[in-house]
Design a protein that fits this description.
Layout lengths: L1 H18 L1 H11 L4 E2 L2 E2 L12 E3 L5 E3 L22 E2 L4 E2 L2 H8 L7 H4 L16 H8 L7 E2 L3 E2 L5 E2 L11 H6 L5 E4 L6 H7 L9 H4 L2 H7 L6 E4 L6 E3 L12 E4 L14 E7 L1
Parallel strand pairs: 11-13
Antiparallel strand pairs: 1-2, 3-4, 5-6, 6-9, 7-8, 10-14, 12-13, 12-14
Length: about 280
């Protein structure tokens, strides 16, 4: 009797052994090992992962966290790509991390040959970004340029993918090339760039303020007395007049880290603006 039971058990085991594998193989095919080609995942995405409600993947799509494909980790391909919703395209700053990454990934805005020259952090030992996605995902996070006293934002647009002004990867020659056709004019004390350019029969070119908002450029046109300081204000880039109160650093040049504040109509009674006119 015991031999009969043993034989029956063995028969059942063999039966299950031949029936189960098809189900296992089907599961593995769907959610198991990723298909590789030359060591690269096919049909998979890197994404920003930590978003509570939204995610941006490395193709430039933004979607709700719940709609991400669990296998490929990609957003659905329908909808807008390289979206700059909630972004100030001039300053390259956004009020949403995920849309900042999406906007940054547009090849027309961020090119690989520029970002590979940028350090991830300030120390000399810091590494470089190895891909556009790494740059966008890292740069769009909160950084020291977007906060005041470590716990307050300079602006609602505190997710910025613009190249840092002190390590932009763009040479002085490249910056100068972006000013071709622009009449760079130093305004009078307390004068806005709108007023400065109008007096020359021209108009202020808003998107060129981003180019002038660099210490190297300001020091070419202004004395700056050897000092170039980060500041916050709609009147920048500018130079503080010599007779300004001492606490305002008379003679110093000022550039703004809050690039969303760059404005043609801003002015301050103790500064002279550097203006792009055309």
């Amino acid at each position: 009797m015991s031999k009969f039971r043993l034989s029956l058990s063995w028969f059942v085991f063999q039966l299950l052994l031949f029936q189960v594998p098809s189900g296992i193989l089907a599961i593995r095919k769907d959610v198991g090992f990723l298909q590789l080609q030359n060591g690269v995942n096919i049909g998979t995405c890197r994404n920003t992962v930590q978003g509570r409600y939204l995610l941006s993947d490395d193709t430039g799509h933004v979607c709700s966290a719940l709609s991400v494909d669990p296998q490929s980790r990609c957003c659905p391909r329908k909808g807008e790509r390289f979206s700059c919703r909630g972004c100030n395209v001039l300053s390259q700053c956004c009020n949403s991390y995920e849309y900042c990454v999406s906007c940054c990934l547009n090849p027309a805005r961020t090119q690989n040959e520029e970002i590979i020259k940028v350090k991830i952090a300030k120390p000399l030992t810091a590494g470089m970004y190895t891909s556009v996605f790494d740059y966008c995902a890292g740069r769009c996070r909160h950084n020291s340029e977007s906060v005041v006293h470590e716990n307050a934002y300079l602006s609602d647009f505190h997710h910025c993918f613009s190249l840092p002004s002190n390590a932009s990867g763009a040479s002085y020659t490249q910056l100068e090339a972006r000013l071709v056709g622009i009449n760079v004019v130093i305004g009078k004390e307390g004068e806005s760039c709108d007023s400065v350019c109008k007096s020359k029969g021209q108009s202020c070119v808003l998107n060129k303020l981003l180019v002038l908002n660099q210490c190297d450029i300001m020091q070419k046109y202004m004395s700056c007395k050897g000092t170039c300081l980060a500041s916050t204000g709609a009147d920048q880039p500018a130079e503080v007049v010599d007779d300004a109160p001492k606490h305002l650093n008379p003679g110093a040049c000022l550039y703004t880290r809050t690039q969303s504040m760059l404005s043609c109509d801003g002015s301050h009674r103790h500064t002279r603006r550097l203006c792009p006119c055309a």
